[in-house]
Every structure is written in structure tokens, then in C-alpha cells.
Amino acid sequence: MLRRSATQSCDIMIIPREIIEEIQHRSDIEEVIGSYVNLKRAGSNFQGLCPFHSEKSPSFTVFPATKSFYCFGCGVGGDVFTFVMKAENLDYVSAVETLATRAGITIPTDKNSASSEMSRRRVFDMNLDAAKFFRRCLYDEKLGKIGMDYLSGKRQLSQATIKHFGLGFAPNSFGMLTDYMHGLGYTDQELMKGFLCGKSQKTGRPYDYFRNRIMFPIIDTSGNVIAFGGRVMDDSKPKYLNSSDTPGFKKSRNLFALNYAKNHCSEQMILCEGYMDVIALHAAGFENAVATLGTAITSEQARIMSKYTKRVIISYDSDEAGQRAANRAMSVLAEVGMDVRVLQMNGAKDPDEYIKKFGPDRFRHVIGESKTGFDYKMQNILAKYDIVLPEDKIKAIAELCSLISEYPSSVEREVYISTVSSKIGVSKDGIAKDVERILRKRSQEYRNKESREAKMSIKGIGDRVNPDAAKNPHANAIEEAILGLMLLYDEYRNAVASQSIELSEDDFFTELGKRIFSEMMRLQKTDGGFAMSLMGENFTPEEMGRMQKMEHSRRQLTENGWDNFKSSVEALKSEKERISNRANGEWMENLRKRRDELKNKQTRT
Fold it and tell me: Are 295 and 307 spatial neighbours (Cβ–Cβ below 8 Å)?
């Protein structure tokens, strides 16, 4: 939680972390930064001219998948809070408040109610009781008729499927759930922390967060009800309303129906956009389907999926938004080494509609014909051009060569070059030469950049963010590798926090490294765990940018496994010991010199 002294008094305002994370969730980083910077799409990311230093070629990049930005020119980076801090010259809490106002979120000012903690177990118990309430309401002939008519009538779900997923209904009532939960001993504060109720700004009365909605319980792999999704029964907005992060739930780290799919996905997993698609697939016998929770897929979700399967078939809506989401998902899943395929359905907009129209067997056939990520992207590129026209053909080939160059494996590139050659009718040699030219140019740009950075690092020029780095560039490089891995992967933070890997603040050389490690571990050991969005409270935008660089550098590498992490920790400790031994040796040598000088002086007298 964030603390801040009030301007006119000694009172302390406390902002709960779940409020901060909800503000970040509602503050789309592309949209916020896009109001300051003219952004243009560059693959799955966005680029523009940096607003923080003068430049002619864009080096400022926004990464939607990680909700972050980084300028490769001046080194500023971080999340949406960091950007507003830098752009508006605000402190961290003021930036949080600014974005809260923009997102229409009220930050609680009651320091007593906001500061009390709530355990994960209490959240789970509360959600289970709420799920039972929603279920009773669905089966109530008066309260739940509209919900049951929708599920069993319009959606054609069987009673077995409805019960299997624990579906329920939130009545169109101001406070029916709140009153029921009060009767079970839950307080308004607990219900608000669990995002089951809100508080009216006009009257101060609590109100049910979910009203007139089909309720989808979100259940983790241990069987706990951790959150809810709600689909409205009228034209109200938003159509789907999802629980925000709580002490027992992180959107970015959970998947709908993984509690069932984990037992049926050893060969492959189907990734859908929504709850109903997943339920329809499970009902039709495809029990390996999951969905993200109202957001684009995150790196945490991709890593979770990689623990259960090696192949993911993306089954998103066939509209333009679905295609964009599929492209993002392919990039995120590829980063964790997944074999990614894309499902293309003709004659239906989503899996639910397709199965209703054509049946499960036809859908199974479509799964078998799912396209590789390259085939899917190639098809989208070719759809933009009329390759009968020479100028369009040249543009299409240029895009396809750029696409091929993004694949690190030379074997993959050779296969894709052959595919494009036969598809467009251009020689393989010509395409291969263009791909090689792009690779050479990219490699030269990277070497030039690395050379510039290495020279500056060795000389200590301009590194005001971490001035200690120039004192021992080798040790600093090891530090940044370790911190980059810990920023990226929860399992490494857990290993250090549980002391299964021995690493402490004293093992680090630079003051910045010590501070990053210390704060990361402090957050990791809290009930909510580590969150990059909370680091900005104690670090400047330039320091956040350095962390972003550490994370980005590791993300570009393929060797980020346990052996790499352990060897980096051992290397850091060895370097520390070497420096310590050298320092002790120099101290002993100075002591010997002083002793000899004293003896010589005594002899002369």
C-alpha cells in the first residue's frame, strides 16, 4: 500500500494495492501514452518519437503485452504510472491519483478502513458463499428466470453443463447479495476488497457490484472460487464485468476453466476469448479449452499454459479485433517456447456459433487443419494486396521477408522461404537474399548499439542512474542478469524468498542493485506478491527504465532457465569473494608497509 502525507494536515492517506492494480488495468497504456505521443504499430508493439528527449528516428517503444514502455535512446521506461510521473512531473502517488480520476475510480480516503489486511483464505470463503448465493438465485423461478432462459434456451446449455461450471445469476437488485453476505458475517470492507460490492458516492450505501448478470465462477486448480465474471442480461455496459485483482486473485495469473482443462491438455490446449466459448467447447467434448479473463494474454498466463502443454491452438473471434488479439497471443506464447497454431472458422464468428451450426465433428476437423503462426500471418499479409499487380507484389514480398527474418532458426527460415516462393511465384534465392539483407542490417544495428553502450559503460559516461556500475562492469553485468530474470519470472523470486536459493542484498555490488533486490523481495513476501506497478513508489522513472532494460534484455534471450539463474548467482558470489580477498590482501600489504616504516624509524633513532 502507498502512504502519503496530506498537504494540509498530518493525516496519512493509504492506497490499497488492489486499487492501484485496478487503476493500471483500466488505464490502457497504448491509449494513455497515445494521448502524448503519435504511436505507430511495429509488429506486436508500438513506436514513436520519445517525448523525453529530442530525436529524429523513433526509439520509444510501447509493449502492450507487458503493459510497459522503454526508450532505447534515453533509457526512460516503466509502466503507465511511470510515464505519467515523467510526462506531468508528478510524484508516484500523484500519478496514481491522476490516472484514477481518468479511469473514474475513487481512491478510498478512510485510512482505517483502507489499511486493514484481508487474507486469501477469507477471500476464498467469501467467494464460495457468494457463488452459492448466485446459484440459488439462478434456480429460483422468479429471480433467475431470465438467466435460466438465456443459458438453457438461447445458449442451449444442458443442466449438467450449468451445474458442472457452477453458473449462477446475480439478481437485478441494489443490495440483495450484500444483505445476504452481511447475514453470514462479512463486512462492507471485506465485500469491497473482494469486489462483490461497491459504495455509492451519493448516499454512502453499499451496493452489489454484479447486478442482472449471468455469473461465471472462476476456480483455480486447487478448487478455490477466486473471482467472478458476469454477463449482463440487457444492453447495459460493460457487457462482461470481471472481478478486479484481490488478495486472492490476479487476472494476469489465472485462466478460466484451467481447473478442468489441466487434466485433458497434455497434447494441446485451445485458447478462447470468452467464457461461453470455453463452456460450449467443454460441453461438446473439447475439455482442453481455456480463456483469459477479460484481458489480452499475459506472459504469466503463457508460462502457466506451458506447464501443462506444448501446443496451443488459438481460437479467437474471426473479426479484425480477434485477428489483432491472435497476433499478440502468438508473440506472447512463442516467447515461452510454445508450438502455436491458429484456428480459422468459416461461416461462424466464434467456436460456440460454429459448433451450434456445424457440430463437434466438423469443429474437430477444423482443429486438425489449424494453421501455424507463420501461415496465419502470411495469409493476413497476402489478403492486403493484389499480388497480380507488380507494386502490390513487391510490398507483400517485403512484408513477408521481414516476417521470415523474425524467426531465429535458420531451418525455419529456409522452410518459410520455400513456402513464400511457391505461394507468390518468386525464386527462393531472391527471397533468401532479401531476408539475409534484413538480418545483416539488424545485426549491424545491434552491434553498433552494443558497442556504444559498452564504451559508455566502461568509461562510466552518462550513467547517472547507476554510477556504481562503472566501478565493476563485470559484477554489474551479473547483477543485471539476475535482476532481469527475477523481474521476469515469479519462480526465481519464490526460490530466493523461500531461501531455496541463497541470495541477499549484501551479495550485490551497486546501490541500485541492492535497492531493486530489497524492494522486490519485500513485495514478494507480502500477501499480494510482487507487482511491477508498485515499484514506482520508490524508484525514479530513469531507475524504472533501467529495470525495464534488464527485463527486456533477458526476454530477448532463449537461455533463461534454472541453470542460467543458478550460475549467475554463483558468479555474483564468486566475484564478491574475489573483491573481498583482494581488499583484504591490499589491507594486509598496507599494514606490512606501515610496520616496516615504523621499524626503520626506530632503528634510525
Answer: no
HSE, side-chain direction, 13 A CA sphere, residue 271:
35
| CA-CA-CA-CA torsion sign (25, 73, 299, 541) | negative
Please report, as a single letter, which amino acid is at residue 593: K
* Euclidean distance between the first and the last CA atom of the chain, given in angstroms as a whole number: 69
Distance CA 401, CA 394 (A): 11
Which residue type is seen at 370? S
Instruction: Report CA 126 to chain centroid distance, whole Å.
Output: 27
Phi-psi region of 78 (alpha: psi -120 to 50; beta: other; left: phi over 0): left
534 contacts 471 by C-beta, under 8 angstroms: no
Residue 161 near residue 279, CB atoms below 8 Å: yes
Cell of 86: 515523467
Joined grid coordinates for residue 181: 453476505
Residue 21's identity, in one-letter code, is E
DSSP E strands in 493-605: the ranges are none
The phi, psi pair for 503, rounded to 5°, reads: -155, 130
Q: Do 345 and 318 contact (CB within 8 A), yes or no?
A: yes
Do you find a cis peptide bond into 238, omega within 30 degrees of 0?
yes
Cell matching residue 526: 507480502
Q: Strand 269-272 vs strand 311-315: parallel, antiparallel, or unpaired?
A: parallel
Residues 302/283, Cβ–Cβ less than 8 Å: no
CA atoms 529, 531, 534, 535: torsion sign: positive
CA distances from 89 to 71, 317, 430 (A): 17, 41, 51
Q: Which residue has the cell 527504465?
A: 545
Q: What is the pLDDT of residues 532-577, one digit of tens each?
A: 888 888 888 889 989 988 988 888 777 788 888 999 999 998 888 8
Residues 415, 397: Cα–Cα separation, whole Å? 16
User: In this structure, what are the phi and psi dihedrals at residue 346, rounded to the nearest 5 degrees?
Assistant: -95, 130
Residues 472/474/477/483 CA torsion (nearest 10 deg): -70
Residues in the chain: 605
Q: What is the pLDDT of residues 153-178, one digit of tens each?
A: 999 999 999 999 999 999 999 999 99
Side chain identity, residue 484: G
User: What domains can you pick out in the chain, each with its CATH number?
Assistant: 2-111 (3.90.580.10), 118-246 (3.90.980.10), 258-374 (3.40.1360.10), 384-444 (no CATH), 488-575 (no CATH)
Closest listed residue to residue 250, CA positions, set 553, 29, 537, 534: 534
Supply the DSSP string of 255-285, one letter for each residue: -BTHHHHTTS-SS-EEEESSHHHHHHHHHTT
Compute CA 389 distance to the chain's CA centroid, rounded to the nearest angstrom: 42
Q: Which of 212, 313, 214, 297 is nearest to 261 (CA)?
A: 313
Q: Is 439 a residue whose pLDDT tops 90?
A: no
Q: CA dihedral in degrees (362, 367, 373, 378; nearest 10)?
A: -20
What pLDDT is recorded for position 605?
Answer: 58
pLDDT reported for residue 453:
57
CB 216 within 8 A of CB 167: yes
Residue 45 near residue 78, CB atoms below 8 Å: no
User: Is the Cβ–Cβ distance between 465 and 545 less than 8 Å?
Assistant: yes
How distant is the alpha carbon of residue 304 from its chain centre?
12
pLDDT digits (tens, 9 = 90+) for 454-503: 555 544 455 678 888 888 888 889 999 999 999 988 889 999 999 999 99
